[in-house]
Amino acid sequence: MSEEQRRKGPRGRGIFLLLALLMLIPEPVLVRQGAPGLEPAAVSAAPELTLALFDPAPEAPPPAPLAADSTFPGVRFGPEGADDEPVTYLPDLPAEAMEIAATGDVNLGGPLADVISADPDYPWRGINEHLSGADLAVVNLECAVSTRGTPFPKQFTFRGPPAALPAMRRAGVDVASVDNNHSLDYGSEALLDTLSGLRSAGIAPVGGGASENEAWAPYVVTSEGIRVAFVAASRVIPHGSWYVTATTPGLATAYSEDRLLAEVARARTAADVVVVLIHWGVERMTQPEPYQVSLGHRLVDSGASIVIGHHPHVLQPVVRYRGGIIAYSLGNFVFTARSRVQESVLLRIGVMPTGDLVAARVPVEIVNGQPRPT
Q1: Which of 311, 313, 266 is nearest to 61 (CA)?
Q2: Residue 16's closest CA among 52, 54, 55?
Q3: Residue 84: half-sphere exposure toward Cβ, Cα within 13 Å
Q4: Fewer Cβ atoms within 10 A, N terminus or C terminus of the chain?
Q5: Which has more pLDDT, 79 or 370?
Q6: Pairing of the two strands 208-209 and 204-206
Q7: Exposed, middle or buried: residue 117 (CB in 10 Å: 0-12, 13-18, 19+)?
Q8: What single DSSP character describes residue 280?
Q9: Is the pLDDT of residue 357 over 60?
Q10: Residue 43 in contact with residue 80, Cβ under 8 Å?
Q11: What is the pLDDT of residue 7?
Q12: Tens-digit pLDDT profile for residues 206-230
């Protein structure tokens, strides 16, 4: 990491007055190659804050095949038709593993928006070292990030400030799915601002785009000699106008499972490891729906090595299936909610040189929207 990032913005009574006001809110394949982004920088310490609650066309051409001199053997899969098995967590990942760190939902809007405007690094101070220490870190970005647009007519709409995205990159985030039920909360212009802001910050967006080809295109990056493809889709989309088309911005949907499975198989021809980021399930349910289990298995059968689920806002099981790893839900991560303190986890998956996947985890508490290791 580079030199410590100096905190910016006002402090003192202005912040606490703002937070007091917030307490009044009622409860309620185009293949994109990895490019160097901003180097994660240290994030300085800050006083604890108390926040108000807030609930929350034509197909792409096939990607290039793997290089003939690739020495990675590929993830080792077992026979089809196997049952889920619990993941055994290691105390730490082996030094030779290539680490992919995955989190739950990241919402930079709601009550956090004004806090982040004053102090962009606030959400990440407790967890940035774990994110920046991974070879690749991925989040689900559960909001628009823009100053434009008008709220979509739905119960909850979230929009974060543009300064949040460079701070998220400084914390170590490399990839962000925008494929969820909040990325179009402020319309297509705010979605396009979000995508542009992520790229400018050095974070690769997946799952949304200005066109169908862009939304479905995997992000492919090489880390430690292993090519990793990220693909995103959603089974939770509020309105048909949010679906991406050949000429209309929007999101890649998982309602058509055949399209998603075909995109995963196509991504596998361009990568050693395929990571699928999927929005699915039922809010506040601690066990996956039957369709999540069935689709999760089909994704692995189609070539996914890792499936990371979001949307329920609570943790669901993390399992092995045929040698792959499926996290049905990673809950919340940067997110305010009814409870001042929430429990969650940072999932660490190691890709071994042999092709085996191993796992470790960092339990966290989310205090006033800020994840902190426990």
Answers
A1: 266
A2: 52
A3: 19
A4: C
A5: 370
A6: unpaired
A7: middle
A8: -
A9: yes
A10: no
A11: 41
A12: 999 999 999 999 999 999 999 999 9
Hey, what are 67's tokens? 């290089």
Take residue 154 and report the two structure tokens written for it: 């739905």
Beta partners for residue 274, in sequence order: 229
Which residue did the predictor score with more confidence, 243 or 24? 243
| Structural contact between residues 287 and 316, judged by C-beta atoms closer than 8 angstroms | yes
SS3 (DSSP) at 132: helix
Both tokens assigned to 93: 């990942």
Distance CA 248, CA 3 (A): 42
Q: For residues 5-29, give the mean pLDDT.
A: 42
Q: What are phi and psi of 281, to 5 degrees?
A: 85, -170
Q: How far apart are CA 288 and CA 173, in angstroms?
A: 27
Distances (CA, A) of 215 to 183, 208, 219, 356: 13, 4, 10, 30
Amino acid at 131: L
Q: How far apart are CA 224 and CA 173, in angstroms?
A: 17
- Confidence band, pLDDT 50/70/90 cuts, at residue 73: confident
CA distance 295 to 244: 21
Task: For residues 12-32, give the mean pLDDT.
Answer: 41
Q: State how far the Cα of 160 lies from the Cα of 77, in Å rounded to an integer.
A: 40
Cβ atoms 166, 124 nearer than 8 A: no
| For the ranges 5-19, 69-83, 247-261, 337-351, the one whose mean pLDDT is highest | 247-261
Closest residue by Cα to residue 52 from 19, 78, 97, 28? 19
Name the fold adopted by 2-373: Purple Acid Phosphatase; chain A, domain 2 (3.60.21)
Cβ neighbours around 63 below 10 Å, total: 20
Q: What six digits make up the tokens of 11? A: 């402090």
The one-letter code for the residue type at 344 is: S
- Tell me which H or E stretch contains 166: helix 164-170
Structure tokens at 34: 């990895």
| pLDDT reported for residue 48 | 42
Q: What is the DSSP annotation of 206-262? A: ESEESSHHHHHPPEEEEETTEEEEEEEEES--S-GGGB--SSS-EE-BSSSHHHHHH
Say what the pLDDT of residue 264 is: 98
Nearest-5° Cα angle at 160, 159 to 166: 145
Task: At 181, list the tokens.
Answer: 């039920």
SS (H, E, C) 85-122: EECCECCCCCCCCEEEEEEEEECCCCCHHHHHHHCCCH
